[in-house]
Write a structure and sequence with these properties.
5 helices, alpha+beta, about 130 residues, three-stranded antiparallel β-sheet, SMI1/KNR4-like, single chain, globular, about 20% strand, four-stranded antiparallel β-sheet
Length: about 130
């Protein structure tokens, strides 16, 4: 799976990236959230920092607060108490409070305030196939 996410993202329409995150920045983000990112998410942020494509913006390890995984996840946790603390936000839909989360195992879930999260993909790469 190592380069699968990188190849998939670079092949997407209107792909834009930020600056790659460093190992130290990734470690700091994981520590602030008290979790470990899935391997494919680490590969993504170590390569691109954060990215957008085809009308979607993925969180990442970057200096833009609305795309920074730490900022977005910490805020989202306040409104989504049914979501495990071991998950982090990979995308904020900006519609009806919908958030897309990734578990440490790599599975992707969708949540909405007051509703139990629902698994929607087995990995970030699988989630991107929906676009």
């Amino acid at each position: 799976m190592m380069n699968n996410i990188v190849n998939k993202l670079t092949g997407m329409p209107r792909f834009l990236k930020r600056n790659a995150a460093t190992n130290k920045q990734v470690e700091d983000a994981q520590q602030r959230l008290n979790l470990v990112f899935a391997q494919e998410y680490k590969e993504y942020v170590l390569t691109f920092g954060a990215a957008s494509m085809y009308g979607h913006e993925l969180t990442g390890v970057c200096d833009i607060p609305r795309l920074n995984v730490v900022n977005v996840t910490l805020e989202a946790r306040e409104y989504n108490p049914l979501v495990p603390l071991e998950w982090y936000v990979i995308e904020e839909a900006h519609i009806d409070g919908i958030m897309i989360w990734q578990s440490q195992a790599g599975e992707i879930y969708q949540s909405q305030p007051g509703v139990a999260p629902e698994k929607i993909a087995d990995s970030l790469a699988d989630y991107l196939d929906r676009f």
